[in-house]
Each structure stands twice: as structure tokens, then as C-alpha cells.
Design brief:
The complex is a heterodimer of chains A (385) and B (164).
Chain A lengths: L32 E5 L2 E4 L17 E2 L14 E5 L7 E4 H7 L2 E9 L22 E10 H8 L7 E6 L16 E3 H4 L5 E6 L2 E2 L9 E3 L12 E7 L14 E3 L14 E3 L6 E6 L4 E3 L5 E8 L5 E7 L7 E2 L1 E2 L9 E7 L5 E11 L24 E6 L1
Parallel strand pairs in A: 4-13, 17-24
Antiparallel strand pairs in A: 1-2, 2-3, 4-5, 6-7, 7-10, 8-9, 8-13, 10-11, 10-12, 14-15, 16-18, 18-22, 19-20, 19-23, 21-22, 23-24
Chain B lengths: L7 H32 L19 E4 L2 E4 L2 E2 L10 H8 L6 H4 L5 H14 L8 H12 L19 E2 L4
Classes of the chains: A mainly beta (385), B mainly alpha (164).
Chain lengths: 385, 164
């Protein structure tokens, strides 16, 4: 096997595994759907997202490279530097915990490519269906507190992350992914350098021992295995920031259009979206019963204003009960009790509307070359007997 | 004003030294990359058993590999002409799942190969490229499903929902 010396210990080589055993991911439950095992990419089926906060062992995994091995938390450091940093400053994990206010926010992370599988013409990459999303309670320090401690020059434009994962090719020092966010986003209260997820260590596949967490942006901005933050005086240009990665056409295009790199713009907002997390698709029940659906809705806007359901393919819509969120970028639970007029096959569709008045489309939204930002309504199939 | 005579040998020595450095640099620029490549581990496609047709019961054993309904069980790849080279080449770096979950035209697959060569360190595929492209374009071509496809009703696991 080429690059065999780089293959992570304890994993099954995808091409060679002489085994029909089910593939299991370290620290993850068996229910996840593994889209790719090299690098590891796995999504959570909608019915496993019914918890108020997504358990650590159910949280989706989107890796671009190979997670670091033999992580030593006591010697782990994070360095702040860059053209727009007043100084280069390094902190240990203990420094972060003791020097800055510790905060916890419930933040939704969603991969920019969630829903890619539905686009036609198809887009290359992991074919996420609906499950590259989760919401957890993240504990850490505010990124802005750390940036200000190092000193941010007035010409700062962007912050960029670097992590300790290694490239699939095994090439030493090749950066796997280095993305970031505009300085205004970095300065938001909810933008965190986090070391805990739901009160526990972050799973290794999700960035242990330290990562960034930005709600409302593509999750690829929330760098994992974090070792360095660079304060840039320009828009960051690291791997997967440029070209077509995590970018959509600046102006709408027809499906299948080839779009040159300079007409592609960075995604800085995840759209309003929702999932039915109960029941699982395929439920059969008697007509005398009402169906109690449950779900989650989220947006990069301030909040979700309304969630509606339809059992007649959008001819009529009814309101769901909607709970308020603990904080911005936390998903919101909704529920409804649905009666059915007749026996037969139905689909339950849900549609969320956010505080900016944006609602989910029933059809696929604007086609884009890499298949990002599909926020079309989720639906489940049921039979009333 | 002429230089002091005792400096002349030193200057000549320096000139000699500079010439040697320039020569070495030129030699490196001309032959260096090739020389370095010979010392670097070259990617080698894995040796695979050749493609053989099935034996009637939908299951074929090729060495230690199982083929069921035309699918190579370990990788999930369709077992067809070009399988060996595709498996050996693509799974050297990434999972076969990255192939099996994607659909594209021949042009689309060429683009993906060029992207991997530009960004991900994929080597020149040489004579294997048309074989790989034929395999991918034939077995993993896109299907037209319109603006939104139906739910795959036949693939849904129907179950009785218990209600209180």
C-alpha cells in the first residue's frame, strides 16, 4: 500500500480491508452513516438528531485530512500572530482557562455542503444528504478576548486558523485546510475557542483538544485541532479558502454552468433550514391517532420566527409550536400534532422562516458548481392505515 | 590605483570558488528534480487479480475478494472493465466511497482528476488515465432527476409507529 506508513493505527484500509465487519469510528455510535473513511466523513440520520443537544458520539464528522495522533493536552499551545497582530503570543490550554472568562453557548454547526446529494447536475465531493449538522453546548473562551489580549491592529480584515491534522498524501508540512472568518465575525460574543462539548472532552474526530466554533458560518470555518490563529490584513488565502471551495457564484447561474474562480464568492451565511427528527421516515399508524412530529430549525439570522408543516405538498400549511433558543445560533425545537383526513400515503413537509423573512424552498435552491447551501424543505413518508 | 600584489592570489581563489558554486547550482537546476525523484518513493499501483466474469450465482471469488451482484464487496466499486486499475489508483490515497457516492460525465471526472493533480498531489496517470475515465464515465454517470427527486419510497423501511 502506498503511503502505508502514514495510515492511522487502528483503522481499516478502505481498499484492502479483507473484512465484512461493520466499519466503526472511534468515539462515535454505530448509527452514523459513513460517507467516506479516508478522510473520515460521517453524517447523522435525521431521527438521531432528536435530542435537544446532539450527543458527542452522534455529532457528524467532516475531516479533510488525518486527525493528529498522540495528543498531549498538557503541552498543547495556541499561538496568535499575523500581519495585523500587535505581537506574537502563545497560550497553553491552562492559560486560556485561567486568563479569560469561560463561557458556554449552544451553537449549531452545519457543513456548507450539507444536502449536496440532491443537486443535479451533481457536484463533486462528499454526497451529504441531510445529516452534516448538529447543535452542542460548547465551552471555551471568546475568541475576541484572546485576540484583544494579543492585540489587533485597526487594519485587520480576517482571522485564519491552522490545525494539527495531516494531509492525506502524507506530505509532511502540507496544510490540509486553513480557513477563517471576517474580523467582525471573530469579534462576535458567540465566537469561541472551545475545549469542551456538552460538558465533556471534544471527540478526537471533532477537534480534540481545542477548536474554533462559529455558528451561522459553514462549519469548515470552525478549525479543529487548533494550534494557531493568524490575524490577516487581507481576506485569508489558505487551502480551501480560494478557487471554488466553500464558494458560490456571486451572481445566480443556470444549473451546470461553468463559473470562473473570480466570479465565485465566499459563503459567509448558512441559510434557514429545518429537519423532522421524529418520527423516522416510514412510520405506519392508524387514522384515529394524531401524529406528533418533532424537529429542529436553525438559521444564521437572529432567530427562527415560524415553522410550518404541510401534508398536501404545500397546498396548505399549518403552524408548528416553536421554542425559543437559549442563544443566537442555537437550533430551535418545533412540534405539531397532525390529524389525517383519509387513510393512505402522505409526506410531511416542514418549512422554517427566519427573522429576516427568509423561508426554505420546496424545490432545490440555486444550483452552484460545488453543491453548497441546499436548504430545501425536509420531508418524511408515512402511511395512515 | 592597482590592487596590492599580495591580494591577487586571494581574489583569484575567490573567483574560482564562485565559479564552482555557479556550476553546481546550474547542474542542480538541470538534473536536480530528476535526481531527487529517483530517491523519493514513487506511488505504485497495487497488484490486483485480473477481472474475471462471474460464475452464475451472482457471487464470484477473485482471490480473497468477493463480488456480489457485480459489486466488489470490500470497496463497493462496480466490478467491470478497468476495476483493477481504478481500485489500485484511487484507493491509494482515498476511500473508494469517494468514487461510489459521486456521479459525473467523462468531462466531470476529468475535472476531478485535474483538481486532485493540482491540489492533492495526484500523479500523472499516464496510460491508465483513459482506462480510469472509461470506467468512471460508464459506471458512475449522472442521472437526470430534475429540480427535486421523489422520496425513494421502495427503499424506505416501513415500520409500525407505537402510539400511546
Amino acid at each position: 500500500m502506498v503511503f502505508a506508513e502514514n495510515f492511522p493505527a487502528g483503522m481499516i484500509p478502505a481498499g484492502l480491508a479483507h473484512s465484512d465487519l461493520p466499519f466503526s469510528l472511534p468515539g462515535k455510535r454505530a448509527g452514523l452513516v459513513v460517507l467516506n473513511d479516508k478522510p473520515i466523513n460521517a453524517e447523522t440520520p435525521p431521527d438521531l438528531l432528536n435530542d435537544p443537544l446532539t450527543p458527542n458520539d452522534l455529532f457528524f464528522v467532516r475531516n479533510n485530512g488525518i486527525p493528529p495522533k498522540n495528543i498531549n493536552v498538557s503541552s498543547w499551545t495556541i499561538t496568535i500572530e499575523g500581519e495585523s497582530a500587535n505581537q506574537k503570543k502563545t497560550y497553553s490550554l491552562a492559560d486560556l482557562k485561567s486568563k479569560f472568562e469561560n463561557v458556554t453557548y449552544n451553537l449549531t454547526l452545519e457543513c456548507g455542503g450539507n444536502g449536496r446529494a440532491e443537486f443535479t447536475p451533481p457536484a463533486k465531493g462528499n454526497q451529504w444528504s441531510t445529516g452534516a449538522v448538529g447543535c452542542a453546548a460548547w465551552t471555551g473562551v471568546r475568541l475576541k478576548d484572546v485576540l484583544k489580549d494579543a492585540g489587533v491592529k485597526s487594519n485587520a480584515v480576517y482571522i485564519a486558523y491552522y490545525g494539527k491534522d495531516t494531509h492525506l498524501s502524507g506530505e509532511a508540512g502540507k496544510v490540509v485546510i486553513s480557513r477563517g472568518v471576517p474580523i467582525a465575525k471573530a469579534m462576535e460574543d458567540e465566537s469561541l475557542i472551545a475545549w469542551a462539548m456538552n460538558g465533556k472532552n471534544i471527540p478526537v474526530l471533532n477537534g480534540y483538544p481545542l477548536r474554533l466554533v462559529f455558528g451561522g458560518f459553514p462549519a469548515s470555518c470552525s478549525g479543529k485541532w487548533l494550534t494557531k490563529i493568524v490575524i490577516r490584513d487581507r481576506v485569508h488565502d489558505g487551502p480551501k479558502m480560494t478557487g471554488q471551495s466553500y464558494r458560490v457564484p456571486c451572481k445566480p447561474v443556470a444549473p451546470g454552468t461553468k463559473v470562473p474562480d473570480d466570479e465565485m464568492c465566499i459563503i459567509e451565511k448558512m441559510p434557514v433550514k429545518s429537519l423532522i427528527t421524529f418520527p423516522k421516515t416510514g412510520a405506519i399508524f392508524e387514522k384515529k391517532n394524531q401524529l406528533a412530529i418533532q424537529g429542529k430549525a436553525w438559521t444564521s439570522a437572529t432567530k427562527i420566527d415560524q415553522v410550518d408543516y404541510s401534508i398536501d405538498f404545500g397546498s396548505t400549511w399549518s403552524k408548528c409550536a416553536l421554542k425559543a433558543a437559549k442563544n443566537r445560533y442555537c437550533w430551535q425545537a418545533f412540534s405539531a400534532d397532525i390529524s389525517f383526513p383519509e387513510t393512505g400515503y402522505y409526506e410531511v413537509w416542514v418549512r422554517a422562516t427566519d427573522s429576516e423573512g427568509k423561508a426554505q424552498p420546496m424545490l432545490l435552491p440555486g444550483w452552484n458548481p460545488r453543491g453548497y447551501l441546499n436548504n430545501a424543505c425536509h420531508r418524511i413518508a408515512i402511511k395512515v392505515s | 590605483m592597482s590592487p596590492r600584489p599580495d591580494l591577487l592570489p586571494a581574489l583569484l581563489g575567490l573567483l574560482n570558488f564562485v565559479l564552482v558554486i555557479i556550476t553546481i547550482t546550474l547542474l542542480y537546476l538541470i538534473f536536480g528534480p530528476n535526481l531527487i525523484d529517483t530517491y523519493r518513493n514513487q506511488p505504485v499501483a497495487m497488484e490486483q487479480n485480473a477481472y474475471r466474469p462471474g460464475n452464475g450465482d451472482n457471487t464470484t471469488e477473485v482471490g480473497q475478494d468477493k463480488i456480489v451482484d457485480g459489486i466488489h464487496l470490500q470497496t463497493g466499486l462496480i466490478y467491470a472493465e478497468g476495476f483493477d486499475i481504478v481500485r489500485g489508483t484511487c484507493t491509494a490515497c482515498h476511500s473508494a466511497k469517494l468514487v461510489t457516492q459521486n456521479r459525473a460525465t467523462r468531462e466531470g471526472w476529468i475535472e476531478m482528476i485535474r483538481w486532485m493533480q493540482a491540489k492533492q498531489g495526484l500523479w500523472d496517470l499516464g496510460d491508465n488515465e483513459p482506462i480510469i475515465l472509461n470506467y468512471l464515465a460508464a459506471n458512475y454517470a449522472p442521472q437526470e432527476v430534475g429540480r427535486r427527486s421523489n422520496l425513494q419510497v421502495n427503499e424506505i423501511e416501513w415500520y409500525i409507529l407505537k402510539m400511546n
